Amino acid sequence: MTRKPNILTPSSESLYLAAQNLRLGKLVAFPTETVYGLGGDATNDRAIASIYAAKGRPQFNPLIVHIADKKEAPDLVIWNKSAEKLADTFWPGPLTLVLSRAPDSPIALLASAGLDTIAIRCPDHPIAQQLIEQTQRPLAAPSANASGKLSTTCAQHVQDSLGEDVSLILDGGPCPVGVESTVLDMTSKPPTLLRHGGVTKEQLEAYLGEIQESLHDESAPKSPGMLLSHYAPTIPLRLDAQTASEEEAVLLFGDEEKVKGGGVRLNLSAKGDLTEAAANLFAMLHQLDQEKFKGIAVAPIPQTGLGAAINDRLRRAATK
Ligand code: AMP
Ligand code: MG
User: Fold this and answer.
1) Do residues 133 and 256 share a domain?
2) What ligand 1 atom has the least distance to the C-alpha of 195?
3) Whose CA is nearest to atom 13 of ligand 1?
4) How confident is the model at residue 198, as a pLDDT?
5) Residues with beta carbon inside 6 Å of ligand 1?
6) d(CA 196, CA 201)
7) Which-ligand-closest: CA of 101?
8) What are the Cα distances from residue 9, in Å, to 155, 167, 170, 195, 226?
9) Residue 99: helix, strand or coil by DSSP?
10) Residue nearest to atom 1 of ligand 1 (CA)
11) Which residues, 6+ apart, have CB-to-CB distance to 68 below 8 Å?
12) Ligand 2 centre distance from Cα of residue 203 (Å)
């Protein structure tokens, strides 16, 4: 198979170009020690929305935020001594730590799927590290494959799976046969193992004492009551609204005329663009979630493309 022009061998030029693209909100696939990651600027909701769009996932699953050095962590999450100890021991490497979002964290709300926790790790791969450093942004990077397809361990597979959705692919050769990262939730006492991976439970317990396990099946649909207790507004949400009372806030999509009335009205995307809508979803829900409103009336949102993930999120919030 001929190589498409957007597969580039890592060099100072291609890393520079990749970093520029990321800073502009474009997606770049890059090798990590586990699998290829579909990278986007973790501080840019639009870039995160295009990761979900490229993967074609029907749900917003929280993404792991990749940093080049542990010193970047305290700006993003509430860092503590245990996290520091684990990072000293296992970073760079396949250990993801889930910590509370720092008050002024620049991480996009969509990257953590609206949760008030953020998963971070420092990958042990020179290209991944150089790319993060050069971009000067934390990078969200789920596996670089379309949803439901196998994870990709070489650049050509990324090309075949995601094609034109990535601006370029940095070819680091095949990934060292790796397991996924271990995911450890540090916000519970004792900490909770959410996913087994490259760092074992026993290794972690040597540093932390006993930890609990609450593994989730990533292929199974997550219910709102499960481990990933997603953010939901405290006031009621009403979907497919056509009219709203003066006591309700309104979340629009596209044509404003589709929902009449309402108090405060915000539009997820006036031009009816689902990627823009996904990028605005959590911030706008937060904005409208005020006790002075009786509820939030949400305009109908098409079930195509990212609309499926947006509707999934809204339905869960509405039925909590
Ligand atoms: P992947 O990026 O495909 O390796 O998967 C990311 C993993 O991290 C999934 O199992 C997510 O559910 C998990 N994850 C990411 N962020 C969080 C979070 N804030 N809380 C709990 N789990 C998380
Ligand atoms: Mg995956």
Assistant:
1) no
2) 10
3) 62
4) 83
5) 61-64, 96, 98, 112, 115, 117-119, 142-143, 180, 183, 185, 194-195, 218, 228
6) 8
7) 1
8) 10, 14, 6, 32, 42
9) strand
10) 142
11) 122, 129, 132, 133
12) 24
Distance from C-alpha of 251 to C-alpha of 259, rounded to nearest angstrom:
9
Q: Tell me: do 139 and 17 sit in the same domain.
A: yes
Q: Dump pLDDT digits (tens) for 62-95.
A: 999 999 999 999 999 999 999 999 999 999 999 9
pLDDT at 219 over 70: no
227 C-alpha to center of ligand 2: Å? Answer: 18
- Residues 76/140, Cβ–Cβ less than 8 Å: no
Q: How many angstroms separate the CA atoms of 22 and 28, rounded? A: 7
278 and 174 in one domain? no
Domain end marker among 180, 213, 246:
213
Range of the domain at 299: 237-318
Look at phi and psi of residue 232 and say left if phi exceeds 0, alpha if psi is from -120 to 50, else beta. beta
Backbone angles phi, psi at 47, to 5 degrees: -65, -40
Question: What is the model's pLDDT at position 225?
Answer: 34
Question: Residue 77 corresponds to which amino acid?
Answer: V
**Amino acid at site 68:** A
Residue recorded with tokens 């000067």: 136
Average pLDDT, the chain: 90
Both tokens assigned to 22: 């990321």
pTM above 0.85, yes or no: yes
The residues whose Cβ lies within 5 A of ligand 2, an ion, are 143
231 assigned to some structural domain:
no
- How far apart CA 106 and CA 120 sit, in angstroms, is 13
Say which residues have a Cβ less than 8 Å from residue 266's Cβ, sequence separation at least 6: 249, 250, 251, 252, 280, 284, 287, 288
